[in-house]
């Protein structure tokens, strides 16, 4: 397990998946001011006058820009529930995508097969100038169904995230099981999200 909490550590947070958004934003604003390049430039004026370091101001400015960039990245990740889970699994060394990411969940195989058939028919109809209305209606209906499944996965992800937070002091085996569940749900979400995106592109 990684000993560096990275983004969590930057905001002074434990590795928990529930974060109070108001407090996160307030901390972000405080740190943004603290890391602002102008503060570093002003802070080094006296040093520059006393000739302690010739390049102190420029070095501090670069450092502050780097810190500001990291802060923005951290805030963007931590305020997004899905990105937060992905990041946590990454620093815990438990994020696995690979070939399984592209495999349809077994219970969705039939629906995915039908969806791909409909997509092929729509592409053929577009190429040959055939009727599109009926095919588009069928795909719109399928898209709504997968959007609902996406909502179900997000709800399961929230449930698994609560399990993680409740098991912060649990044994390693319990924590690994929860991380495996989170990882599987992320891959499932990614697969369904890609399906929805593909349908939306064809419906444009």
Structural class: mainly alpha
Structural domain count: 2
Low-confidence stretches: 43-54
Main pleated sheet: none
Elements, N to C (H/E):
HHHHHHHHH
Helix content: over 70%
Alpha-carbon distance between the two ends: 45 Å
Instruction: State mean pLDDT (0 to 100 scale).
Output: 85
Which percent range describes the beta-strand content? under 5%
Tally of DSSP helical segments:
9
Cα shape: extended
Count the strands?
Answer: 0
Computed CA radius of gyration, to the nearest angstrom:
24 Å
Report on the architecture of this protein.
The chain is mostly helical and 204 residues long. It has 2 domains: 7-91, Helix Hairpins, CATH 1.10.287.110; 100-203. It has 9 helices and no strands. The longest helix is centred in the C-terminal third of the chain and has 34 residues, at 133-166. The radius of gyration is 24 Å and the shape is extended. It starts with 6 loop residues before the first helix and ends with a helix.
Using brief descriptors, characterize the structure shown.
mainly alpha; extended; 0% strand; Helix Hairpins; 204 residues; 2 domains
Summarize the structure.
This protein is mainly alpha-helical and 204 residues long.
